[in-house]
Amino acid sequence: MPESCKLDRKLDALLARRKSHGRLRRLSTTRPESADFSSNGYLSLSTNPVVQKSLLACLAAEVSASEDGNRPCGSRRSILGSGGSRLLDGNSPFAESLELKIAAFHGAETALLFTSAYDANCGLLGCVPQIGDVILYDELIHASVHDGMRMSRATKKIPFAHDSISKTSRRRCTDVGGSRLGRQSEMQGLDDTLRQISESEHVRSGESNVFICVEGLYSMDGDVVSLDEVVRSVDRHLPLGNGHIVVDEAHSVGIFGDDGRGLVSQLGLESKVWARVVGFGKAMGCAGGVVLCSSTTRAYLINYARSLIYTTSMAFTSLASIDVVYSYLMGGGIRPLRRRLESLIRHTHRQLSVLCDQLQVDRRTLHIQEVPSKSPVVPVFTAYPRDLAEHCQRFGFMVRPIVAPTVPAGSERVRICLHSTNTTGEIDGLCRAIGIWIQDRVAVARRRAEDDKVVEARDVFGWDKPRL
Fold first, then answer.
1. Which superkingdom does the taxonomy of this entry point to (predicted)?
2. Any idea what DSSP says for residue 313?
3. Does 164 share its domain with 257?
4. What is the number of alpha carbons within 13 Å of residue 212 lying toward its C-beta?
């Protein structure tokens, strides 16, 4: 029997095991008529007519500039492909000017573009930490940071409790009161972890560097890092300046800060954060990523970041998309979109709260955060996320179930992602669909309880036994 067949049987067994645990992933498509409460394009910039027209004008101008009859055959500039990695044939004056534009907007010394924020995290953490260094990371940090750490030469990689750096998470743990859904982490908090590692001679002397990895906005819980607390803790325990904070702002750029500059800029902590990773695939509505850092770090990444060196760089179409979106941000175009989004966030929380109060639903079936989120990500916690998501999809509302291992076991949920183009009518319709699902579950549970009582009565009184 061919070895490939044996391998397929082994893979099939692994897939079957995952399916038996309710964790099998499948590709799916979204019905065009569905109301979008799933995608990450919070500001709806990818469908914004002003942004689209600007992009088309930029591409048309590039094509026109390439149609020069005096140029030799084959010298037209490519807009579909870059031709290679940045170190070979994929660099351009346009890419370098875009990096300067991005860095200036975010108040950073410089910037380095990557094909994705995933590649940016992998490249940054995979090459900068050295033997003897320590990486501390939030237990809920993105998978790209984990993959970067796997490539890293850092001697220690230590997780810390998410609820130690998130006020929203701390409140949620207190509200749940010890139930498994949302149970507080048993890991040490960041401050305790920093205190412990600072007792090491190499760390205390400043010889070893410590990298602290957090996200600005967490895409599954919708909570925001208490970044000012993180900075104070690092300064307190690592006063020699060998503590380096890395903030993944993939979900917070566009949502926080003046004109969407991000959480770090909103708090004025640019000088306290060693590196920021910005992703363009969320609120920015396009694709790609960038590391905001010092000129020295940028030069180091160009020399050592494998995800930059060995990857074909972004084509002009991708660079132009990023450029027009930043121009739109700089012109204040997202201000009304953000106000609209903030209003929808409040409306969603209010409607879900009323729903839970009216139906008196138990927390295992469904519960939400008691305090309104500051983000467009609204988690609806439930022990039955797949059933609820499928129910909402049948009603024309695209939401997704989020289950382990994407989130810790026991914290499963349906995630609602709001967009500036969603309407209050769509939100009200989604909440009504959720209400119908709750009522159906309550009715089913009641029937089961009644059936159990009948069975118990038969056992006690012998109703079904033959009479003598």
1. Eukaryota
2. P
3. yes
4. 30
Helix, strand, or coil (residue 202): helix
**442 burial via Cβ count (<10 Å: 0-12, 13-18, 19+):** middle
DSSP symbols for 126-164: HHS--TT-EEEEETT--HHHHHHHHH---SEEEEE-GGG
376: in domain:
yes
312, 330, 348 — which closes off a domain?
Answer: 330
β 243-248/156-160 pair status: unpaired
Compute how many other C-beta atoms are within 10 angstroms of the C-beta atom of residue 209: 21
- What domain count does the chain have? 2
State how far Cα 178 lies from the chain centre: 26
SS (H, E, C) 328-369: HHHCCCCHHHHHHHHHHHHHHHHHHHHHHHHHCCCCCCCECC
Residues 340, 316, single domain; the answer is no
Separation between Cα atoms, residue 242 and residue 208, nearest integer Å: 7
Instruction: Based on the fold, state whether residues 349 and 326 are members of the same structural domain.
Output: no
Is 64 domain-assigned?
no
Helix (H, G, I), strand (E, B) or coil at 8: helix
**Counting Cβ atoms within 10 Å, is residue 459 exposed (0-12), middle (13-18) or buried (19+)?**
exposed
For 128-137, the pLDDT digits (tens) are 999 999 999 9
The number of CA neighbours under 13 Å toward the Cβ of 253 is: 26
Instruction: Kindly report the pTM of this predicted structure.
Output: 0.89
What pLDDT digit, counting tens, does each position of 392-413 carry? Answer: 999 999 999 999 888 888 899 9
Taking the C-alpha atoms of residue 312 and residue 35, their distance in angstroms, rounded to an integer, is 35
Pair 278, 356 in one domain: no
Can you read off the two tokens belonging to residue 87?
Answer: 């170190």
